[in-house]
Amino acid sequence: MKRRQRGGMLALLTAPLILFVVILFLWPVARFLALAVDNSDFSNNLPRTIAALAGWKADSGLPGEPVFAALVEDLADARRAGKEGVLAQLVNQRVVGSRFLVIKTAKDAADGKLTMRPVRDEVLSKQGGWKNIDLWQVIARQQSARTDYYLLASLDLKRGADNSIEAVSADRAIFVDALLRTIWISIVVTVICAVLAVPLAQAIVSAPPAWSKLMFALILFPLWTSLLVRTVIWIIVLQKNGPVNSTLLGLGIVSEPLDLIYTRFSLYLAMVQVLLPMMVLSVVAVMRRVPTTYMRAALSLGAPWLTAWRRVQLPLILPGILSGGAIVFVFALGYYITPTLVGGPTDQMISSYIAFYTNSTLNWGMGAALSLQLLMILVLFALLFWTASVLFRRKAHVA
Amino acid sequence: MSADRFRKWLMYAYAATLLAFIILPLLIVIPMSLTSSNSLAFPTPGWSLRWYAELWVDQRWPNALWNSVVIGLSTTVLALLLGIPAAIGLAWGDFAGKRILYAIIAAPLVTPVVIVGVAAFSFFATLGLVGNKLSIILVHTAMAVPVMLTTVVASLSTFDRTLVRAAASLGAGTIRTFFKVVLPLIAPGVITGAIIAFIISFDEVVVASFLSTGAERTLPRMIFSGVRESISPAIAAVAVMLIAFSATLLGVIAILQGRSQTLRARASA
Question: Which of residues 29-88 of A touch B (CB under 8 A)?
Answer without folding.
Answer: 29, 31-33, 35
